[in-house]
Write a structure and sequence with these properties.
globular, mainly alpha, 10 helices
Length: 209
């Protein structure tokens, strides 16, 4: 059962997104969605968002994950997104049903997150300045307050290696859907991404058929 407060929180997050869609906010939102998928389950994430508006999760995939996943910065943030996306790909049945058209695209985006340089571009029309980005006492204080603090990886114990985790999860998904996942990957994933994926399978000592 989805906590009723969760839906209200998500509605507020989407309202904020529609009022000022900044790159910084989108990146934070992707980290939040990904962590939610990992803690509460990818299926619950999909159901919750689709419960706000039918097939809304498709828009989240198309307009947020596929467009901006490559912009995620920070080792911990990238790992959270990688694990969250892996869970969305492999633990949400809707991804092979309602949203199958996005499955390979999302996997491609995930491999790109692992292997390609970060996308640091910002839309030309983005003039909104976040409060914490403005110079002044608050910024200096924040820098001092967090100086020397190590980033906390909430997935350090459960997922030591995100690439290996992806490989193992894909192997599980393939076992649960015989004859479906490997052909999907072969037909929908770019050759370079398939090469990287094979390295992940080798590192995880798994394979899919």
């Amino acid at each position: 059962v989805i906590d009723p407060y969760h839906k209200q929180i998500f509605i507020l997050l989407f309202q904020r997104l529609s009022s000022s869609k900044t790159t910084k906010y989108i990146k934070s939102l992707l980290v939040f969605f990904s962590l939610y998928a990992t803690i509460f389950g990818a299926s619950q994430l999909v159901e919750l968002i689709d419960g706000i508006q039918p097939r809304m999760f498709g828009m989240v995939l198309e307009k947020l994950y596929l467009q901006d996943l490559q912009k995620i910065s920070g080792d911990v943030e990238q790992k959270i997104c990688a694990v969250g996306v892996t869970n969305i790909l492999t633990e949400a049945p809707a991804m092979l049903q309602n949203y199958e058209a996005f499955w390979c695209k999302l996997l491609q985006a995930l491999v790109s997150l692992f292997e390609l340089p970060k996308d640091e571009s910002t839309p030309d029309d983005e003039h909104f300045i976040e409060i914490e980005d403005t110079p002044g006492y608050q910024t200096v204080y924040s820098q001092l307050a967090f100086a020397g603090k190590k980033e906390n990886d909430p997935l350090a114990k459960s997922v030591p290696d995100a690439k290996v985790y992806l490989a193992k999860q894909l192997a599980k998904l393939s076992a649960a859907n015989p004859g479906k996942i490997a052909p999907l990957i072969r037909s929908g994933l770019e050759e370079g991404a398939q090469t990287f994926l094979q390295k992940y399978f080798t590192a995880a000592n798994v394979s899919i058929a």
